[in-house]
Design brief:
106 residues; 6 strands; 17% helix; globular
């Protein structure tokens, strides 16, 4: 899914993710391989936001490729995308980052 500039700004301000600009040379290859998305990256890998259902107001951040530990310029595609623990309210451009939140057991 493609995010708006407001949504992209919210994600970049609240997380360590950086959006890959549409003009970047890698975008055409990424879109050919994975479809049309706003792609984000950080020191761990490559991510996109996806809605569980088309009409869902929340999108969830999924990792689908991670940097090779031996060659940080090489991405390794994951067999299945994994949740990265970040959600985005699409209407309000509100980011919820649960990546480092402690789990409470009752």
């Amino acid at each position: 899914m493609q995010l708006t500039e407001i949504q992209i700004d919210a994600v970049e301000k609240k997380t360590d993710l950086t959006a890959i600009k549409q003009e970047h040379a890698a975008i055409s290859k990424l879109e050919e391989a994975f479809g049309s998305h706003t792609y984000f990256m950080n020191e761990d890998g490559l991510f996109v936001f996806m809605q569980a259902e088309e009409k869902d107001n929340t999108a969830h951040l999924l990792a689908f490729a991670m940097w090779d530990e031996e060659d940080k310029n090489k991405l390794l595609q994951l067999a299945e995308p994994i949740s990265a623990g970040v959600s985005l309210n699409l209407e309000q451009a509100h980011v919820i980052d649960n990546r480092d939140q402690p789990t409470t057991i009752h």
